[in-house]
Amino acid sequence: MKNKLVTLLAAAIGLTAVGLASPDLKARQTVQTEVLDEIKQQVSQSTLSYDIVESLTTEVGPRMVGTPGADLATGWAVAKMKSLGFDKVWTEESQAQLWQRGDLTASITAPYPHKLVAIALGGSVGTAGKTVEAEVAYFADLKALQEAPEGSLQGKIAYVGYRMERHIDGHGYGKAVGARVIGASAAAQKGALAFVMRSVGTDTDRIGHTGMMRYEEGVKKIPAVALSNPDADLLENMLRRDAPVTFSLNTNASGPTGKTVTIANVIGEVTGAQTPQEVITLGAHIDSWDVGTGAIDDGIGIGIVLAAGHYIANMKQRPARTIRVILFAAEEIGLVGVRDYVAKHQDEMPRHMLGAEWDFGNGRIYQLEPGVGPAALNSVRDFANYLAPMGVSLAETNTAKGQSDMSVLGEAGQPAFNFAPDGLDYFDYHHTENDTLDKVDQDAIKVNTTIYTLFAWYAANSGVDFRL
Amino acid sequence: MKNKLVTLLAAAIGLTAVGLASPDLKARQTVQTEVLDEIKQQVSQSTLSYDIVESLTTEVGPRMVGTPGADLATGWAVAKMKSLGFDKVWTEESQAQLWQRGDLTASITAPYPHKLVAIALGGSVGTAGKTVEAEVAYFADLKALQEAPEGSLQGKIAYVGYRMERHIDGHGYGKAVGARVIGASAAAQKGALAFVMRSVGTDTDRIGHTGMMRYEEGVKKIPAVALSNPDADLLENMLRRDAPVTFSLNTNASGPTGKTVTIANVIGEVTGAQTPQEVITLGAHIDSWDVGTGAIDDGIGIGIVLAAGHYIANMKQRPARTIRVILFAAEEIGLVGVRDYVAKHQDEMPRHMLGAEWDFGNGRIYQLEPGVGPAALNSVRDFANYLAPMGVSLAETNTAKGQSDMSVLGEAGQPAFNFAPDGLDYFDYHHTENDTLDKVDQDAIKVNTTIYTLFAWYAANSGVDFRL
Question: Locate the Peptidase M28 domain: which residues (chains A, B) (predicted)?
């Protein structure tokens, strides 16, 4: 009933009717052309999303939880959303664990001394004011480390040399990141003094990749650091020779401090004209690592979803449903902000109709995978057909649960669209000093912003219940 | 007379006769095929030159004048040349000025604070134990800085934003490097407190490019630093806004210390069998900057010329002339080692018959430009014809004076071959932390080593006087 009503209303006021089970395909497509084409034409010419990334990276920069940049970013986002014409803008505060990077020096001390470029993993403890120096034990990957005999790493530094693979969908990350997350505790269980790994990254820059790690309960906490890929090569070239290789590490990374800091999700809404209680979510995360300026991760996402909200807020027609743009806090340290969001919005979760996140950088979208109810698929196919000339194919599967932060909303029942961009270069910059504005593809971000704006409009006005 | 004799000798023992003005082209080409093809087949299969770079970068690493690595490199090179079968190996010591980099921090302090990635230019003074903080004055290039009114930079930090162009022959370097060399004194003459510039480099990495600068006599010495390209972008984006931008710099770079350190050219010879007093030189430089491991600049050169010497030393036939491989010291800080070489070898300079340097990194050789006497050109054309199937064209000009160190030998009268490799990526890594082994193109170095070995053999056995 509700859907029928929305359909009638939408038709009455000339809204797009993509996805309605209309018998008159031609008439329906005419409506698409009128509204979606108007969005497409306007957005695809605009540099707004790039300008937003420029503003964020220039006026704020890095914004790791617990740093001044994180608070600056909150203020920046509120002001930006207001200036972009959102109907409502607010923040939702919660608490996250504080971790501090401090300084770090790493070197090979024998047989051939070299200073190394390394970076502490997020959450790592330091070396307690001392320098740890020990022989390196090499492991090809996490599994090999886990299979090392008990006690075999006593007095040694464990090194995992697994090299991340480059793939368009970034699935090399999943194969590599396990060592980062649980490698330190795996090494500590065998007696290691410290855990060193090849950066989880596809570049060849003398820049380390950070990222979150976790200590297993009851296992000794040892320092965890990543070498830049060229430094990992150097270490491995040395290990291939006969002599033992000794490694020296000094870091005052804080480890778990037990302290918490206030974080804030920043939320902006374009209120729906027909069913404002029904929410379409567009997500990105506002925090970044402290290295780089977080242009790629996730400045681009912020640019895309704020721009999409802006365009829809400024259309003559109002969206039927509410479009809610959420900049989630503390994504990098474990999806903290979105969990708080779900807890706070439990009551309205059933009215979260559909969501999409942008947290995968630069490339052009090549695929849309839905995660919707079967009755909604016809409409999704119509929308995908509309996107097809922009190079977007519809995945054969319908299993999307939401990307990054949105995965937590997916667990909470929100249907999702996963847009897959070409991620070939994403892990060149991910979590590094190299994540800066110049890496943003100014053509691709226009196309992707256009698609997200089309998505938001479609989702808000299709009248489809994406859960059914 | 001498040349005729060599010709006859060469013919008698089956040496290649490339370049002899033989009326029987076919017979001559048969000789080419036999000896040069043998070299080509052997060398093009071998990884020796890459293995040498691997050894140097792993066992020595960076080797800036005045650092322990420089002395390590001397010992490494002597041992390597001996193990490679050179007939004679020796060092020639001299003195070079000591400069020490120290530490550096740079940041934008207003209107939006950012830590910056910057690097002191070679030779720069420091900030005398204090932090220099001042408003930034922007200049598009060195010329604009030089045209600033007298006194207009009083109390300011001068910034030159010129962005190096990428070209296959690297000529963008010449257009950009002037600011690096004389920008500090140009800024000081207008009253500036410090000189900051966009790195001379074509990359977009968060890594600064160092390189030598010079202070003008009688002008106040002010600190000179280069920003990484992304940091230069950030600074310029901020300068485009309305508010004044203030910059903070702290460096304890030593400036000219007045102290000298011992440097050493390392020289290895394959002694000529017919006219050993006639010398063919193959050059590269043994020093590097302290950042990176000097794989590209000039580890590749060292790998190529040592491998070329090795192959010829191990041929059944001995070269007619002597092949002298010279690893010049202190190239980076102003061609110091080669000047000492010329001074020490003044007497035998007239018997330096032809030379070639490798100091341009990675790319495949696409061109040969000679700088020889007109009578030698026919022979050079024949040799170039032999190389043509390997993708090497002969330049229309005959004005080569020698590259890098060899330019000083060129000034001293030595004829030269300038081999031009594709240098499109050279300035991505030049003088940076990113100059590491993984950047070495393992296919290209085989081809280039083959060409240099062919060159050495040809030059040593052609019998041509390249000065005539």
Answer: 265-450
Query: Same CATH topology for B2-98+259-461 and B104-251?
Result: no
A365-371 and A416-421 as β-strands: parallel, antiparallel, unpaired? antiparallel
Say yes or no for a CB contact (<8 Å) between A114 and B234.
Answer: no
Alpha-carbon distance A414 to B467, whole Å?
Answer: 81
B434: nearest CB among A58, A205, A293: A205
Q: Which CATH class is domain A2-98+259-461?
A: alpha beta
Going by C-beta distance under 8 Å and a sequence separation of 6 or more, which residues neighbour residue B217? Answer: none
Rounded-to-integer distance, Cα B465 and Cα A64, Å: 67
Cα Rg of chain B (Å, integer): 24
Whether the CB of B207 is below 8 Å from some CB of chain A: the reply is: yes
DSSP letter string, A237-302: HHHTSSS--EEEEEE--B---S-EEEEEEEEEEE--SSEEEEEEEEEEE----SSS--IIIIIHHH
Among A242, A255, A249, A122, which Cα is nearest to A192's? A249
**Whole-angstrom Cα distance, residue B47 to residue B307?**
9
| Beta-carbon contacts of residue B227 (< 8 Å; ≥ 6 apart) | B106, B116, B117, B118, B196, B197, B198, B199, B208, B235
Query: Sign of dihedral through CA atoms A153, A154, A156, A158?
Result: positive
* Other C-beta atoms lying within 10 Å of the C-beta of residue A135: 14
Q: How many CA atoms lie within 13 A of A388 on its CB side?
A: 9
Query: Could you give the CA distance from residue B175 to residue B218 in angstroms, rounded to a whole number?
Result: 26
Give the pLDDT confidence of B347-369 residue by residue, as tens digits: 999 999 999 999 999 999 999 99
* Of B112, B293, B436, Cβ closest to residue A58: B112
How many CB atoms lie under 10 A from the CB of residue A348? 12
Domain residue limits, chain A: 2-98+259-461, 104-251
CA distance B441 to B438: 8
CA dihedral B295, B298, B303, B305 (to 10 degrees): 170
pLDDT score for B34: 87
Summarize pLDDT for A183-204 with one digit per residue, the tens.
999 999 999 999 999 999 999 9
Q: Does A54 touch chain B (CB under 8 A)?
A: yes
How far apart CA B254 and CA B243 sit, in angstroms, is: 34
pLDDT tens digits for range A85-130 = 999 999 999 999 999 999 999 999 999 999 999 999 999 999 999 9
Residue whose token pair is 């403890």: A125
The verdict on ipTM greater than 0.95 is no
Q: Which of B433, B439, B440 to mutate to test the interface with A (most CBs of A within 10 A)?
A: B433
Strands B156-160, B132-139: pairing kind = parallel
B114 interaction partners in chain A (CB closer than 8 Å):
61, 293
Residue ranges of alpha helices (H) inside B240-376 are 300-313, 336-344
Strand-pair partners of B356: B282
Quote the DSSP letter at residue A45: T
Burial A237-273 (b: 16+ CB within 10 A, else e): bbbeeeeebbbbbbbbbbbeeeeebebbbbbbbbebb
Q: What share of chain A is helix, strand, coil (3-state, %, to 5)?
A: 40, 25, 40
Under 8 Å CB pairs connecting chains A and B tally to 78
- Closest-approach residue (CA) in chain A for B228: A434
Query: Domain B104-251 belongs to what architecture?
Result: 3-Layer(bba) Sandwich (3.50)
Looking at CA atoms only, how far is residue B440 from chain A in angstroms? 11
